[in-house]
Specification:
The protein is an alpha/beta fold. The protein has twelve helices and eight strands. Helix 2 crosses helix 3, helix 2 packs antiparallel against helix 11 and helix 7 runs parallel beside helix 8.
């Protein structure tokens, strides 16, 4: 069975970093991810640099990315101006976003959920007219930092509206990493019944250590597309110091062990994780990355001791 992985590290991961990663390093990272076999990579965001300065160079990144007909590089866009900037850079797929909770949506977009629909509808329709594909994100599906539990009907309504606008897929997000496997199964069983599993993806965070367990729960409900971040890049803005996105290395390791095919070369993926870890100068949360690098270091040490024996 095939599972698709949407790599969000270059966008969702790097936007949470306190330090600026050079444009050249971002391009190199994205190239390594493509070489590892990832075919869907979210490479940046056209949100105003005032709000996300870490991704202010997204236009430069897209203009310099090596074109690969097998790889789709997408970008997040908040409005028509962001869409226009994406079009100027040759972007062929964009993503729009909103929340399932009213308070989080107002904090993020400065509009109610109902007020956000016509704004996004205009963006989606224009993107489709330009020949772009459009993906949708729904945040705080499993919990909101301001409201706590979020009614499932909120997520059903937002998902339905996004699909009616013309997005081809909706990514269901555990923004603050509070979901548990039972909650994931209950939520996806309803959403799949509403819209079919082919139109849905899972976006889980490992803030409380349940990220991969939640992937397994979503798999049981027929979900076959998941977002993840190289090295586990990205944190939770509502829980300083906590981990955020599930790690691409950890996800691929688990999926392969469960008999799923991803088309991703795990060793090359680890090399990509090692590269961005060196660029950031600190250990990343990925457990598979840490274990692989520790094993390599041990082997190198044993070989060196054998040469001097």
């Amino acid at each position: 069975m095939q599972v698709q992985i949407v790599e969000v590290g270059p966008r969702d991961g790097l936007q949470n970093e306190s330090q600026m990663v050079p444009t050249e390093a971002k391009i190199r990272l994205i190239g390594l991810l493509a070489e590892a076999g990832l075919r869907r990579i979210e490479a940046g965001s056209f949100v105003h640099p005032r709000w996300i300065p870490q991704l202010a160079d997204t236009a430069d990144v897209f203009r310099q990315l090596p074109r690969n007909p097998d790889v789709t590089y997408s970008a997040l866009v908040p409005n028509l101006r962001g869409l226009e900037r994406a079009r100027e850079c040759g972007v062929t797929e964009v993503a729009v976003f909103m929340s399932a909770s009213e308070t989080h949506n107002r904090k993020n977009i400065n509009k109610s959920i109902s007020e956000t629909f016509p704004v996004l509808r205009e963006v989606v329709q224009e993107a489709l007219t330009l020949g772009m594909r459009v993906r949708g994100y729904v945040s705080t599906v499993f919990g909101c930092p301001y409201e706590g539990a979020v009614p499932l009907d909120n997520s059903r309504r937002v998902t339905d509206e996004l699909l009616k606008m013309g997005v081809y897929e909706v990514s269901i997000g555990d923004t603050i990493g509070v979901a548990t496997p039972r909650q994931v199964q209950e939520t996806f069983s309803v959403l799949v019944n509403d819209v079919t599993s082919e139109r849905l993806a899972g976006h889980f965070h490992d803030t409380r250590g349940t990220g991969l367990a939640n992937v397994a729960a979503a798999l049981a409900e027929g979900i076959r597309t998941f977002d993840s971040s190289i090295g586990g890049l990205g944190g939770c803005p509502y829980a300083p110091g906590a981990s955020g996105n599930i790690s691409s290395e950890d996800l691929v390791y688990m999926l392969h062990g469960m008999g799923y095919e991803t088309g991703v070369d795990l060793q090359k993926l680890i090399e990509a994780g090692s590269y961005i870890q060196r660029q950031l100068g600190r250990p990343l949360p990925s457990k598979v990355l840490a274990a692989s690098l520790a094993q390599a270091e041990t082997c190198a040490k044993n070989e060196a001791e054998g040469d001097t024996a």
